[in-house]
Amino acid sequence: MTATAAVPPKVLISYSHDSSAHRDRVLQLADRLRQDGIDCTIDQYVPSPPEGWPRWMMNQIEQSAFVLMVCTDIYHRRVRGQGEPDKGKGADWEGAIITQEIYDAKGKNTKFIPVIFGPDDTAQIPIFVRGVAFYRVDLEEGYEQLYR
Fold it and tell me: What pLDDT digit, counting tens, does each position of 13-29 carry?
């Protein structure tokens, strides 16, 4: 009898494009998850999806076992639809989809996981995911807890 390898979970990282430095650290997180065997994706891996960004985001959220929400002040405002009107449409759209999925599940949530890069970001975790554990991924201990 042959042993079959476990299929790694599919993970999407949802985040806002706050700055190039922030995009870089999100990319580093995605790359590390991939190196550790997680099937992780972010928009930076896909220059232009043929189905367009709205459908790509919707499909990725639906197909992912977990969605990591990188919580910052800008992300928090955008996922709540309170960002600048002509900026951050991706995080705004993802926020609408995530909120609807949690609403449809009557508040139960095992899929959407808040992650932060610093202690000040805990205040930026959207209310609809505050009831689940969050992980501070800039610390090795926090990354390891998330990974496990």
Answer: 999 999 999 999 999 99
